[in-house]
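User: I'm curious whether this sequence folds into something compact or stays loose and floppy. Could you predict its structure so I can see for myself?
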Amino acid sequence: MSDRLRAFSGQIIAVGVALLLGAIIIILVGESPVHVLMTLLRGAFGDQEKIAGTLLQTTPILICGVAACIGLRGGMFNVGIEGQLFLGGFAAAWVGFTFSLPAGIHTLAALALAVVAGAAWVAIPAFFRARYNTNEVVSTILSNYIAVLLTSYFTIFLFKRPGGWSETPPILATAYLPEIFAFSRLNWGLVIGLLLAVGVALIFRYTSWGYGVTMVGSAPKFAEYGGVDVKRQGFVVLLLSGAVGGLAGGVETLGVHHRFMEGFAPGFGFDGLIAALLANGSPVATIVTALFFGALRSGSLLLEVDTSASREIITVIQALIILSVSAQVLIKRRGDSQAGERRWKF
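Assistant: Here's the prediction. I'll summarize afterward.
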């Protein structure tokens, strides 16, 4: 069995175990798993408006998933995408309501600052990883809380809309991401996410830089022996991952909310990370896994209407998927590491 097929089958088994456990929980709360499944499918794909809603939920998960794929390909586990998304979202909103620019240019300027904000926010964990070999998992996940609280402070105390909730003033219409359909908020952010996924996959497959990143992620000792600056490569990979995470926040602000507010995109960064893990770090496969999580989010809105189950059951199922996939990835990485050590000893 090839490595790619083995990895794919491992992911399928992990998701199957999680869904089986989820079905048991649904039975325990007195509902039929088949009824819940059919309700989810109708809520996610029942008509054109529901399909558009599912794609709307998929968009930030996809872009965050691509951000995670970039890190994973280079051996970096960027768990701070949620915080980078928040900083990018606020930065885009600030450009949107502060400056008056021509349409198109205004949108690009806001997205550009979102990218810069995401990269800047991950720069500190990236520096400590490259300079002192600190664990990027711990530093990036802690940075999430700081980012959320910092943007809340900016929103409430510095840029709060007069007389409104905890939100900034609305951005100017010239900064909007155009909508794809008149009946939905689905916007061109979906196209950005799809192009980004395909573009990153092509870079990894057909460029020398992409090959170097892949070598650093899969065999850092071999890459270093071949002349690759592993620490510098890891630093750059984390910066790029953070930049894409910031872009996800910019897309969500400019395309959906048209302002920044507290908790404007809860959990998209973490969903993107698990979508990337479920896709085994493949940007193209992340399109499918992001759609899966987007459908779970969108379909859950109908659960409390047509079933006796709470929509929170979806959160439980997502947590089970995260645990199952993470355990599978950990086992695989430990096995790969031990195999690599045996080869080096030989």
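Summary: The mean pLDDT is 89. The chain has two domains: 1-31+311-346, 55-307.
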